[in-house]
Sequence to fold (335 residues):
Amino acid sequence: MQCFSQRILGLGLIALCLSACQPETSPTSTTVEPSLPALPPVPFFNGDSAYTYVAKQVAFGPRVPGSAAHKACGDWMVEKLKSYGATVIEQNAMVTIYSGQKIPMRNIIASWQPDKKDRVLLFTHWDSRPFADQDSVRRNEPIDGANDAGSGTGVLLEIARMLAKAPTQPGIDIFFNDVEDMGAPREAMGGDQRDSEETWCLGTQYWTKNPHVPNYKARFGILLDMVGSKDAVFPREGYSMRYASGIVNKVWKAAVAAGHGDRFLSETRNFVGVDDHVYVNENMHIPSIDIIAYNPLTGGFPSTWHTHADNLANIDKESLQAVGATVAQTIWTER
Ligand code: AHN
Ligand code: ZN
Fold:
């Protein structure tokens, strides 16, 4: 004959055993933290399409600010962006380059879901350099700029095409900045590196002081620069690590998830003098990184940099694919 407390203990043990023996699919799993609803799959980034956008830009001719080719290319980009559902804002102003010459600047900002507060900024320059000061021939003639800046612009136009069909959780702004590449040739500044750095990225410098919408803010920014060179690899870039190492980690993880971890090196390299993201970090306080190709042979930029070899023949579709798929993975998995 059991006493009452023994009966209770016995029943309790049976209950404990029953619950412990439950299969994993039992309702006991409802006590676990509920997970967020699954996001739709990351849409496919088409490197062939990005390549055709690079070819199209090159076909306009060098996109030197103030030139007819520059105007025609900009008009084509704006029309494409609008057709992909973007709200487009242009900034036109005169800026003064290192020589004292005033030239027209045309920044193009394309926004998806412009009313959303949570935003991600993607950026690249779209102008090309009016001379080939790193070449040994025809140094005063403009370069094709297939890589610099056709590649970043081509990748982000393909992202724009994807945004037309598949919305992201955060709103997206793609900033095509102008007059990035009118920086002083080394010999023009008498060797003062600090002064010469301020002669680059004039469109971005303008935008950070005159944002396209008041109090513009984004969670983070990703700059693309020379992402189309043959077998391009991307170390963690020094300024990006200084200002936004968490974003570098996020994007480098996305590269692995997208199957392109081999292109995104774990080492940090300080090989960039200045680039657009420096101004976005310093003036706008938006943590921003630079995906920029590194030449392991020279420790600098791709060998075609500011030479006539920066042409379509030296664009690698696989490099565009690796970077585009990584950016897509990043923005379509951002909640
Ligand atoms: C320098 O580091 C001197 N320029 C980097 C900005 C740039 C020019 N990227 C492409 N062209
Ligand atoms: Zn350049």
In short: The radius of gyration is 25 Å. Confidence is low (pLDDT under 50) at residues 1-29. The domain at 42-183+198-332 is CATH 3.40.630.10 (Aminopeptidase).
